[in-house]
Amino acid sequence: MSVLRALAPVPVLLALALLAAYPVAADTTGRLADGFGVQDQPWFALVSASGAIVWKHHGWLPVAALKAAAHRA
Q1: How far, in Å, CA of 68 to CA of 37, rounded?
Q2: CA distance linking residue 71 with residue 16, whole number of Å
Q3: Is the pLDDT of residue 46 over 60?
């Protein structure tokens, strides 16, 4: 399955992936989420270049809060 086809259900994520200066992923099967111990939806995680989770949040949050977390990380 192509990346664009996998992202089709989530156009906002696709837009972020195209505009972001960092990798953005969609986990359509849930396998990646299982590996990171995700327990809720939506689940946000900021991951360092070395692969360490530096911040995580489950549930909805305002865009401003997500931006603030990214700046702190």
Answers
A1: 23
A2: 17
A3: yes
